[in-house]
User: What shape does this take?
Amino acid sequence: MSCIEEKFAQLRATYPKELNSSLVMPFLRIMLDEKKSLGESDAVFIANYLGLPAMQVKEALTWYTMFYRHPVGTHVIKVCRNIACSLMGAERIIDHLSQKLGIKPGETTADGRFTLLLVECLASCGTAPVMQIDDTYHEQLTEAKIDQILKGLS
Amino acid sequence: MTSERIFFNFPVTADSHTLKAYQGRGGYQALENALKTLQPIDVEKEVMASGLRGRGGAGFPTGSKWSFVNKKAPVVYLCCNADEGEPGTFKDRWIFEHNSHQLIEGMILAAYALNVRNAFIYIRGEFDLSFRRLMDAMSEAYKAGYLGENILGSSFSCDIRVMQGGGAYVCGEESSLYTSIEGFKGYPRNKPPFPAVQGLYKAPTVVNNVETLANVPWIMTNGAKAFSAMGTEKHPGTKIFGVSGHVKKPGLYELPLGYPLKKLIFEECGGILNGKELKAVIPGGSSTPILLPQDVETANLDAECLSTYRTMLGSGGVIVIAEGVCMVRLLHTLSRFYAHESCGQCTPCREGSAWMNDIISRIVAGKGVKGDLESLERITKGIMGNTVCALGDAASMPVINFITKFRAEFDYYIEHGRSMNDGRLEI
Assistant: This one.
């Protein structure tokens, strides 16, 4: 926990007291980056640290989709399935990834390397179809391009 | 910075996003000039006179929005809405990746006009390069004395804090956005009170889109007159249009407002993919009503003209759909999205968007029944106007529109249990 607390303290020092509650989102993000998925105790920890009601942080944790509450794989693959990507072959891309990884969307491979998620618009419609692996965007996808990208991942 | 473009007026290179490059293009001179020679009210007046309207979707006059704020209030907040989430919209990313400083300078000018000490940029949690480029630009701006205490030796101080979202579409709604900044789940709030009176932490608050704020340095440099000389009389300036879907050259195009939609699709974007015919166009992000080919012949891209076609300019996210696409399955991608993104606060939207998606899912699965379309219409009536924010309306409008404009396709799908276009989305 100490590394997280260090980061918390660093950020908190740059926020005036009246904006204390605005640290909830950034803290959840810092915690997520460290732990990959979050639970109730994490929300309580943040609430206690900031002196806020535990329920407020718990609600935030469970309401935002990016704060995973289940363990995810080493790499999280998010494929856009919204309108622009659909028009450019998102279904084909999703099927290919599913087949290649041997899992359905929402699942994690048995070796824990990959989690496949379907997400809504990633704001990259001009270069559809699009997926995001961990933080990085991969645009104008084709089946061959996906194979290459997956091969290049450790 | 005197070209007829406000954004795409420099060649993008490996370091064109840096402070040095921005300064080389005349960047931060508007800020220096304002702090030395102008009163805050002068900045507001110039923006008011330019006729700048919000670029995020609603198109509200920016100067008016600023004028509603009591600048003598003990605290005033400015929030930049960078939660770019409306399907079809990808313009703000370009600003972050290639010219974050233009936004930062615009925000400092806005903060000066509004007497803001603490400002926020609420950026989509998924953004990666955009976020990194923004953070780099922020530290450059702090180091150069454009942000922080006593900016450029003046008595004006301002801090900008960047907050990453959590993946909620609704947080692009202004009250949801500042509720999220306050560290809560992003439930939108009832209006009134409007944010200009009571917003973030109950203080007067202005929420402006990225592109809106990034226009401000250009306006202060070149003057309101030069700005209002571009575009149309009622909707001046340029706009970054993001074209996606079935065109040969999708991407971003900065054009004067009022630009003909047909020219954008068939000249700028090279026409329809694979030489197909045009079937429909969504002009301003997924929740704006859809246009048919005959509308595209004559429609211009500005708020007034598009309102005569009963649609909206929205965020400028133009989605082009070619002949052969199954509109039933296409609507399903949208109904699924809105059902997923409904925040859960208002019953009509929470339940209604899910019901609509259930019905459309059933039709797509070949199990539609007679009366489904009437049920959908009835549900939209129950949602629209009965919710705190506009997400319910946004979820309803595509449903009504698709059903009305492509009725035969829906009837066929329900009657035969299959698509008359083989269920194709890709062409």
